[in-house]
Design brief:
The complex is a heterodimer of chains A (258) and B (315). Chain A is of the alpha/beta class and 258 residues long. Chain A is 16% helix and 34% strand. Chain A folds into three domains: 4-97, Elongation Factor Tu (Ef-tu), domain 3 (Beta Barrel); 110-216, Rossmann fold, CATH 3.40.50; 218-258, Dihydroorotate dehydrogenase, electron transfer subunit (Dihydroorotate dehydrogenase B (pyrk subunit), domain 3, Ribbon), CATH 2.10.240. Chain A is globular, with a radius of gyration of 17 Å. The relative contact order of chain A is 0.15. Chain B is of the alpha/beta class.
C-alpha cells in the first residue's frame, strides 16, 4: 500500500472529555484507501519538548465529506499539543501505515470488538466496515468511569454496544472480560485495542474459548515506516516491527499467553 | 540615462555537487545513515532515491541477530536514544533476498557491516565483496548496543586496527570505517584505521546515553543504555569531524544531528567530503532531498561553482 506524506487541514477539534479530543481533518484530494487498524504518523508542531512524530490510529473516514478522524488522548506533551489544534491549522501526516484488522470473510460473521479508553478509536472504522461487509459487530467498550467512554452514540449506528466501567458509573461494573455478553453470545472472532493488560485478558479469554483474536499494539515508535526497528515486538516469529507487520497481530503470534 | 528599470535576474546555475570517496563517485554529498533508512525501499514512496549520493543500508552481521528487547527507544530533548542492537537476518539472507530487491536502485548502495571478532567482520565483508552492485561497505566498529563486539573494537586504536586489518585483507572495494564518539581522542582512532588501509572514515556513531522512568524507577531502555542521536549531538559531532579531518588524509564523512542544508554545510566546512542524514529521516522522510536542494541553493546564492570550495573551508 503506497504511503503518502500530506499536509492535512484541521476542520475541527472537539473535546470529548477532559483529555480526549476528536480531530477532524480534510485534504484537497480524496484520501487514499485505508484499512481499519492502520495508523497515521503525525508531526507535532510548536512542541519544543517533543521530538518525534506520534502514531495515531485512524478513527474513521467519511468518504462523502473527505474527512479523516483521529481520536487523541492527551497523555503527554505531544498529544496535549495535538488536542489544542484549531480549525484551519495544518497537520503534517504520513499515511496510511501498518497492517490493519482482518475483515469478515463471509456474510453473517459475529465479531466482538473490545476497546478500552482511547483504544476504541480504530474500532469505529472497523465496525462500520464489518457492517458494510454484511456482518454484525458487537462493541464491548470499557473505561475507568463514564467520562472515559468515547463515541458511544457513533458505535450504536453499527451494532449493539455493551459497556463496562471500573467504578460502575455506566454499564456493568468491572472489566470488559467480566461483561455478561461474553456468556450470552457466541463469537466467530474478536478484535481488540486498548491498554495492554486489557488486551492480554481478552486474548486469554479468546484462547480459552477457541476464538480467533486480533489485537492492535501501541509500542512506541520512531519512524513508523519500518526503517528504524525501534517498535519491535517479540512474537513466535522473533522480533517483528509493530509499525509494519502490525500494529494488528493475531494474538496467537504474540507471546502474551506463554 | 532614464529608461527601462534594470531588472536584476537571479542567475540560475547548478553548482557541481559531485564528490569522490576513494573510487566511489557520489553525484552529491548527501548519504543516508545506517539504521535510519532501512534498505532504501521504505522511503521509495516519498522521494526518488536516485537523488541521493548514497544509501547506507541497515547494519548486517554474518549470522542473524534478534536485537534487543523492547523498549528500544526513548525520546529525549532534540534527539532520541536507541538500543535496537543490530537486528538483522544475517549476510546470507541479505545476499539472497534483499540484495536482489535493491541492486537496481540508481545510487550507491553501501552495506553497513558489523561483527564480534576481526575474523567474523572479515567473513561478513567478504560475502558483501562478492555482490557486484555494492561498491562499498561501512564498517561499524562503534555500535554501542551489542555486547562483545561493535563498540568494543572502536574505542581503542588496537581494536580498531585489528578489525580494519582483517577486513582489508578480504575486502577489495571502498572501505569506510564508522567511528565511535565514545572515546578520548577520535582522531587517534581515525589514524589507526587509516594506517590499516581504510579508504575513508565516517563519524559520529551515537553517543552512549541513558533515560530514566521515574515512576517505575527503572531505565526506559531494556538494556539500560542506548545511543543518542539527533540535533542534540550535532555540536559534538562537528568538533569531532573537524578534529579528524585535520588528522587524516583519507576523506571524512560527517554525520550527527544533520537536519537541514545549513547543518550539512557546517560539516563540510569542518572538513567532511560527504555527509549522512540519520534521525532527521524519521521526522521528514523527504529531508535528504531538501538538504541536497538546499546545499545547491546556498552554493548558487554565494556564487560557489563547485562544492569542493567549501569542503574544509575552516582551517
Amino acid at each position: 500500500m503506497k504511503k503518502y506524506l500530506l499536509d492535512l487541514e484541521v476542520l475541527s477539534t472537539e473535546m470529548l472529555s477532559d483529555i480526549h479530543a476528536l480531530i477532524k481533518l480534510t485534504a484537497p484530494e480524496p484520501f487514499p484507501e485505508m484499512d481499519p487498524g492502520q495508523f497515521v504518523e503525525v508531526r507535532v508542531d510548536d512542541s519544543p519538548s517533543t521530538f518525534l512524530r506520534r502514531p495515531i490510529s485512524v478513527n474513521y473516514i467519511d468518504r462523502q465529506k473527505n474527512e479523516l478522524w483521529l481520536l487523541v488522548a492527551a497523555v503527554g506533551e505531544g498529544t496535549r499539543r495535538l488536542t489544542r489544534l484549531q480549525a484551519g491549522d495544518r497537520l503534517n501526516c504520513i499515511l496510511p501505515l501498518g497492517h490493519g484488522f482482518t475483515l469478515p470473510k463471509s456474510h453473517g460473521e459475529k465479531i466482538l470488538l473490545v476497546g478500552g479508553g482511547v483504544g476504541v478509536a480504530p474500532l469505529l472504522l472497523l465496525g462500520s466496515e464489518i457492517r458494510k461487509a454484511g456482518s454484525d459487530p458487537i462493541f464491548l467498550l470499557g473505561a475507568k468511569s463514564k467520562d472515559g467512554l468515547l463515541e458511544t452514540d457513533l458505535f450504536k449506528e453499527y451494532g449493539r454496544v455493551c459497556v463496562t466501567t471500573e467504578d460502575g458509573s455506566a454499564g456493568e461494573k468491572g472489566f470488559v472480560t467480566q461483561h455478561s455478553v461474553l456468556g450470552e453470545e457466541h463469537f466467530d472472532r474478536i478484535a481488540t485495542c486498548g491498554p495492554k493488560p486489557m488486551m492480554v485478558s481478552v486474548a486469554r479469554y479468546a484462547d480459552q474459548a477457541g476464538i480467533e483474536c486480533e489485537a492492535s499494539l501501541e509500542n512506541s515508535m520512531a519512524c513508523g515506516i519500518g526503517a528504524c526497528l525501534c517498535c519491535a515486538e517479540k512474537t513466535i516469529d522473533g522480533n517483528v516491527r509493530v509499525c509494519q507487520e502490525g500494529p494488528v497481530f493475531n494474538t496467537r503470534k504474540l507471546l502474551w499467553l506463554h | 540615462m532614464p529608461g527601462r528599470p534594470r531588472v536584476q535576474y537571479k542567475e540560475i546555475t547548478m553548482a557541481a555537487l559531485n564528490v569522490k570517496i576513494d573510487r566511489l563517485e557520489l553525484r552529491n554529498p548527501v548519504m543516508t545513515a545506517s539504521g535510519t533508512f532501512g534498505y532504501g525501499l521504505e522511503y521509495a514512496d516519498f522521494m526518488p532515491l536516485r537523488e541521493l549520493g548514497a544509501i547506507i543500508v541497515k547494519g548486517t552481521t554474518l549470522e542473524p541477530r534478534e536485537g534487543n528487547d523492547y523498549p528500544r527507544m526513548a525520546e529525549t530533548p532534540e534527539g532520541m536514544l536507541n538500543c535496537v542492537g543490530l537486528q538483522n537476518k544475517g549476510a546470507d539472507y541479505f545476499c539472497r533476498h534483499i540484495y536482489p530487491q535493491i541492486k537496481d536502485i540508481d545510487t550507491n548502495m553501501i552495506v553497513n557491516v558489523s561483527g564480534n571478532s576481526p575474523e567474523n567482520y572479515a567473513a561478513c565483508a567478504a560475502r558483501i565483496d562478492a555482490l557486484d552492485r555494492i561498491p562499498a561497505i561501512e564498517l561499524n566498529i562503534s555500535c554501542p548496543n551489542i555486547k562483545g563486539g561493535g563498540m568494543a573494537f572502536g574505542v581503542t586504536c588496537e581494536g580498531a586496527a585489528s578489525v580494519v586489518k582483517a577486513v582489508r585483507e578480504r575486502y577489495h572495494k571502498t572501505l569506510i570505517v564508522k567511528l565511535s564518539p565514545n572515546v578520548t581522542d577520535i582522531a587517534d582512532i581515525a589514524r589507526a584505521c587509516e594506517a590499516e588501509g581504510a579508504d575513508a572514515v565516517s563519524l559520529i556513531n551515537t553517543l552512549l546515553g541513558m533515560a530514566v522512568d521515574i515512576e517505575r524507577r527503572e531505565p526506559v531502555l531494556s538494556i539500560r543504555t542506548g545511543g543518542l542521536s539527533g540535533p542534540a549531538v550535532k555540536p559534538v559531532a562537528l568538533r569531532m569531524v573537524y578534529d579528524t579531518a585535520h588528522a587524516v588524509r583519507i576523506p571524512v564523512v560527517g554525520l550527527g544531528g544533520i537536519s537541514n542544508a545549513r547543518d550539512a554545510i557546517e560539516f563540510m566546512m569542518c572538513g567532511a567530503t560527504a555527509i549522512q542524514v540519520g534521525t532527521a529521516n524519521f521526522l521528514d522522510p523527504t529531508v535528504t532531498l531538501k538538504i541536497k536542494n538546499g546545499i545547491n541553493d546556498w552554493l548558487d546564492q554565494h556564487g560557489v561553482k563547485d562544492i569542493h570550495e567549501i569542503i574544509g573551508a575552516i582551517d
